[in-house]
Amino acid sequence: MDISIVVPLFNEEESLPELEAWIRRVMEAHGFSYEIVFVDDGSRDGSWEVVERLAQENTCVRGIKFRRNYGKSAALNRGFAAVQGDVVVTMDADLQDSPEELPELYRMITEEGYDMVSGWKKKRYDPVLTKNLPSKFFNWTARRMTGIHLHDFNCGLKAYRNAVVKSIEVYGDMHRYIPVLAKWAGFKKIGEKVVQHQERKYGTTKFGIERFIRGPLDLLSVIFISKFGKRPMHFFGMWGVFIFVIGFFAAGYIGISKLYRLSQGLPTILVTDNPYFYISLTCMVIGTMLFLSGFLAELISRTASDRNSYLIEREIGSVKATAG
Q1: Is residue 323 part of a domain?
Q2: pTM for this prediction
Q3: Order of strands, sheet of 34-40, starting from the edge strand that comes earlier in the sequence
């Protein structure tokens, strides 16, 4: 199979028929064998009924329905587990991503050898103050912290080599940082393509102001997990030992200084009256706690349960695909 298209959706019943027809026209015009995997993230409208109807009309359509809303990352992760195509493309269900970009994204993966190609919505039809400016700042920060020079980390339109999506795990709100996850999984040829951004035709955005808080926190999380997820002791243990040693030598200096002053008959104060004693004691306690945290994190990381335990209510479609 040439292309698998993963479409996470939440309350998008109006746009789904138009999106499926548009994808089908493009795929048939270029003779691609393909599948469309709609992942219904617990929609409360008639989205799943639309997916069922589309699957009956087109054998290339598959559907996965979550029992409740888990978020875009969970939908993508489950879709990645289900795909069969050599090239996997993700796109949003709101018609703001154009299926006309699919052939060129496929070519960049198969002919130019990219592991991943991220879309860049250079011209956006979003509110400037609430979306465009925060997005520019966020992407600038992500570039500086990750070393991946992409203009639009959060663009929903991305293409991947199949091995990439089978090698990464997307959870929480980590869909914004799939390029980072791919890089740390060893897929370093990451490209970018300017893509057309469509105005939203139906419905409203599903992301509120909380994304301004979650975005930076998720960026810190993904960097930490990428570097220390499999070896947390290297982070917590290092800082724990460092802080403990500072506190230990500071307490030792305070004790030795008191003994020296007593031996010389000099006036001195009780150790417990010295504020620096409590600072050094606090450092030793914090250092010990950090070290133990690293030790426990090591145990947890080696016995962690699979995060892919999403409650799927129904699933339709087969892995068959037809060439256009």
Answers
A1: no
A2: 0.73
A3: 190-194, 116-120, 158-161, 87-90, 3-9, 34-40, 61-66, 312-316
